[in-house]
Design goal:
Length: 989
């Protein structure tokens, strides 16, 4: 009924040898399951059915899922379903179990269609006609001798060996013919889970383990074996492990519930899937529950699997879940916080962390929430913007609309606002306390000083660059640094000295200050990180390698790193590298960029109030985000190394015909068009994977396509080609994978395309002319003696003959010129799309590069549009490829008619077209595109696709603000996909 092979596979190599039970990594098990990064998928996301019975991963990296409505292959972005409709060999859609054979083949157990084996490019199904006792199969495994063991629903076990079958039933020693699963032992023996206990088959001998061996008198559902041979058993009444020849409960803390799935992760934690209690994690004899109330799709966990990237996948009755331990842990309302939107953090002297949210104040102590304080508890306002613990141990909290309050032990002891005499405004964004006890208050309407119970306000009239205060910092020399929405200032004995940062990439907003021991000031601004040292400023921004230049906080981890927060995640830079870049000794930074794939519930870190990040006394970094307070221990980052994504070729089309992808391919002579579809098999935020490719023999350099997963080439000539594709995940801190995926392709020439054909033709013509000449001269010599008397007449004849020879020579020259012109015509065809007559992608890409360079040089407008026919694949599928070709030619004609002299159109690839609009602002380009869209919508398709209504979606983008024409293409492509997601038949941009 449920799969367990992947669990046995993942367990291999996990537990130390000679250890009866797994050991645990304390760092991993200290993190609650609810703090793990998680994703869920259901039928809304492409699954054919919400119940996932089985999960496995093949050596190429694909994840395979067994559901009641077919087999599913997942590449991180798309679910591809195999069922009886598209895979005739699969005789039933209900997939109960998936096994991976030693050679990577899939062994599928179906609910009423026997066993299907997918090996290479072939599918083979075994049923009762091939010796199975029953077509209703619960599980099937292939042993090292190539024998197939099949556990049936109610007819025992069948073993198929070389076409011969043997049945194991109650008469052969099984306690029951009702089976649930199989396990192939390391010694090639077989364990069988039955309705009345556990059976071990060794050389056709059976050994029964039941109540006498310590197991409950109940069905056995699941089996798991670790690398050292430790056997775990999931039953209808709890989980057990084998000790010698007996079985003992896995933990007394586990509930007495059915256990249909088990998995062991890399930290040694045992994950237990139950029927009613959800997912349980067993660590060091402590049990943590993760149920539907905390994010599990359903409490019945039918399948568990740990993939090679370390993620835990759980198949439930209501969808698929992925859990992954990540560097960051995020604490939010799921852990009891009053709200997810965290704006300020502060550490108290007892080590607890104060967390200010938009709906109250929270205290995190001892790894859990220790108190929540809101207006219901006496706070004058819930929206906390700033926090500061002062020397006397009290906590000051600034609010959004309720002014400033002082708390002790969570109780308000003092409250100031504009009604009670506090100048400035009630929006308090920053707080700082000087060594003499003076409290500085940063508001949205000026800087306020509270000294000896008296307030004093400083504004623009006093020298502040702007009165909207974003940050405050007490320097080691006792002066106050003030960050505003228009630069910074230093307050020296109540005198304000402005610091203009506009020369630093036009920096304006100053969100934070960090001071080194030597007085160097690091300033987080909206245009990068500024170093202020000895009165001189230098900046690190986008040009120096920062992926984001609006920075909110700077935190020194005291281990050589500076942590920067932003609206697009958290970055870590090496301090020495930063100094080298700022001093001109290094051109760019290497940045570790952390986002949602790394455990942040949201990449949006908050700023403009705070502190919005801090380093606690244990060395952990805390960050305020839009979905909770996130924390990371910098000292353990090395344990979260990611694998670089590898790329697989999912589909290869030659002249629009599918070809089985292989490392070496010889295609039919005359092949002109190639299309490659590929995917990087990584499940850690697959949308962050970027691709580049090149076709050696066509491309001189890499073609970077962003996150697009296909490449197309047209008008190819005969020859040898190598298609190379590589993946990177810069958003995850991964560069280009050096292990490229390569396909070698040979396109043989036709006879007339052979290299020797044209020279041979020319040589034949020359020989023919020479032979004719020699024949003619001989004839003339033989007749010379006979025609002496007619010398004058024959001389004239010879002159005429010479003229004819010259004419023949001129004709030969003309023929050679025609051959040259045809050769030039072939060259032109390489830049045109053969089907539509439009320019092809290569031609338009070169035109776009020239127009982009000219527009950037002359500061002229330039727009670019990508236009894609909606649901075009249905024309080919429902009508024919010929109808599709006619449709493309009709679209090309409409594109020419509508563009006229307004733009340059081309076929970009497949059903995708592109237009360059020189000297055209985006508003005009959008009008042209909308006219094209209406023209396409008005096309009469009755002649080639009766009943079809053609529509088009497009994205149009302008050059302004972009550094390269490929960025313009990428922007238009993103807008195209927005148009698709918005419902198609529209133009976005």
């Amino acid at each position: 009924m449920l799969l367990f092979l992947p669990l046995a596979v993942l367990a291999a190599g996990q537990a130390p040898a000679n250890t009866p039970a797994p050991t645990f990594d304390k760092q991993a098990i200290d993190k609650p399951v609810s703090a793990y990064f998680r994703e869920t998928w259901t039928t809304r996301d492409g699954l054919p059915h919400n119940q996932v019975n089985a999960i496995a991963q093949t050596p190429d990296g694909y994840l395979w899922l067994g559901t009641w409505e077919g087999l599913v292959r997942y590449n991180g972005l798309e679910f591809h379903v195999f069922d009886r409709r598209n895979t005739p060999a699969l005789q039933d859609n209900g997939i109960r179990a998936i096994r991976i054979a030693a050679d990577g083949a899939l062994v599928l157990s179906t609910s009423r269609g026997g066993v299907t084996i997918h090996r290479g490019n072939t599918w083979r199904t075994l049923t009762t006609a091939d010796g199975l006792a029953q077509d209703e199969v619960m599980d099937a495994v292939e042993d090292r001798k190539g024998r197939l063991w099949v556990a049936t629903e109610s007819a025992g076990i069948t073993r198929i060996d070389g076409g011969k079958s043997r049945q194991f039933t109650q008469g052969s020693g099984l306690p029951s013919s009702v089976m649930f699963g199989l396990l192939l032992d390391r010694d090639d023996s077989v364990w069988a889970a039955t309705a009345e206990g556990l059976v071990h088959l060794v050389d056709d001998r059976t050994t029964l383990y039941g109540a006498a061996a310590g197991l409950p008198d109940a069905p056995v559902f699941r089996l798991l074996q670790t690398a050292d041979g430790q056997l775990y058993v999931g039953t209808e009444n709890g989980a057990y492990r084998r000790v010698g020849e007996r079985f003992v409960p896995l933990s007394e803390r586990l509930p007495a519930d059915g256990v249909p799935s088990l998995a062991l992760d890399a930290s040694g934690a045992m994950w237990v899937g139950t029927v009613n209690h959800g997912l349980l994690r067993l660590t060091d004899n402590s049990v943590e529950q993760f149920s539907s109330q905390r994010g599990l799709p359903n409490n019945r966990v039918a399948a568990l699997f740990v993939d090679r990237e370390g993620s835990l996948w759980a198949g439930t009755n209501a969808g698929l879940l992925r859990l992954r331990d990540a560097p960051f842990s995020t604490y939010n309302t799921e852990h009891g916080l009053s709200d997810d939107y965290v704006r300020a953090l502060a550490e108290s002297r007892d080590g607890s962390i104060w967390i200010g949210t938009s709906r109250g104040l929270n205290r995190w102590r001892g790894g859990k929430l220790d108190g929540v304080f809101t207006s219901a508890d006496g706070l004058p306002g819930d929206s906390i913007l700033s926090l500061l613990e002062t020397a006397d141990g009290s906590l000051w909290a600034g609010t959004y609309v309720s002014g400033l309050m002082q708390l002790r032990d969570g109780r308000v002891i003092e409250h100031f606002d504009t009604r009670s005499g506090m100048p400035g405004s009630n929006q308090v964004r920053a707080l700082a306390q000087a060594p003499d006890g003076t409290l500085w208050i940063g508001t949205s309407r000026g800087l306020v000083q509270l000294r000896d119970g008296k307030f004093r306000r400083f504004g623009v009239a006093n020298g502040l660059p702007r009165e909207f205060i974003l940050s405050l910092h007490i320097a080691k020399d006792g002066t106050l640094w003030v960050g505003t929405a228009n630069g910074a200032a230093q307050v020296i004995r109540d005198r304000i000295v402005p610091l203009d940062l506009h020369a630093m990439n036009s920096a304006q907003d100053v969100f934070d200050f960090h001071e080194d021991i030597d007085g160097t000031l690091w300033v987080a601004t909206d245009r990068g990180l500024v170093r202020h040292r000895a009165g001189r400023n230098h900046v690190i921004g986008l040009a120096q390698g920062l992926p984001v230049d609006t920075l909110f906080q700077v935190i020194d981890d005291r281990a050589g790193g500076l942590w920067l927060t932003s609206n697009r995640g958290v970055m870590r830079i090496d301090r020495k590298e930063a100094e080298a870049v700022l001093d001109g000794r290094r051109p760019r930074l290497d940045v570790d960029h952390f986002g949602e794939a790394d455990g942040l519930a949201s990449s949006q870190c908050n700023g403009g109030s705070g502190p919005a990040a801090l380093r606690d006394h244990r060395g952990n970094i805390w960050v305020a985000t839009a979905k909770g307070a996130a924390t990371v221990n910098p000292s353990v980052l090395h344990s979260y190394q990611r694998q670089q994504p590898s790329v697989v070729i999912e589909q290869l089309l030659a002249d629009d015909r599918a070809v089985l992808p292989q490392p070496k391919l010889v295609l039919p002579a005359g092949t002109r068009k190639l299309e490659f579809h590929y995917a990087g098999l990584s499940f850690q935020m697959p949308r962050l994977i970027r691709y580049r490719y090149r076709l050696e023999g066509v491309d001189d350099h890499w073609v970077e396509r962003g996150n697009q997963r296909f490449a197309q080439y047209t008008n190819l000539k005969p020859g040898q080609y190598r298609f190379i594709v590589s993946a990177a995940a810069p958003g995850l801190g991964q560069g280009w994978n050096p292990d490229n995926t390569v396909v070698q392709i040979e396109i043989p020439p036709h006879l007339w395309q052979q290299v020797w054909f044209l020279p041979l033709c020319a040589l034949a013509l020359l020989l023919l002319a020479f032979g004719f000449y020699r024949w003619r001269i001989g004839q003339l010599d033989r007749r010379a003696t006979q025609l002496a008397a007619l010398v004058d007449t024959r001389t004239q004849d010879l002159r005429e003959q010479t003229a004819r020879l010259l004419a023949a020579d001129n004709e030969k020259t003309r023929l050679l010129q025609q051959l040259q012109e045809k050769s030039e015509a072939f060259e032109r065809q390489a830049r045109e799309d053969a089907l539509t007559g439009l320019a092809n992608r290569r031609s338009l890409d070169e035109q776009l590069a020239r127009e982009f360079e000219a527009a950037a040089r002359d500061q002229r407008p330039l727009s670019f549009a990508l236009l894609d026919l909606d649901d075009f694949k249905r024309i080919n599928d429902d009508y024919s490829h010929a109808a599709g070709d006619i449709a493309l030619r009709e679209v090309a004609m409409a594109l020419r008619n509508e563009l006229r002299d307004h733009g340059i159109g081309a076929r970009w690839g497949g059903e995708e077209f592109a237009v360059v609009f020189p000297d055209t602002p985006i508003e005009q380009a959008r009008v042209h595109c909308e006219r094209i869209r209406r023209a396409i919508e008005a096309l009469d398709c009755s002649g080639f696709a009766p009943g079809w209504r053609m529509t088009l979606s497009g994205g149009v983008a302008e050059r302004t603000g972009l550094a390269h024409h490929e960025k313009l293409v990428s922007r238009a492509d993103s807008l195209l996909y927005e148009a698709k997601r918005a419902g198609r038949n529209r133009i976005h941009g």
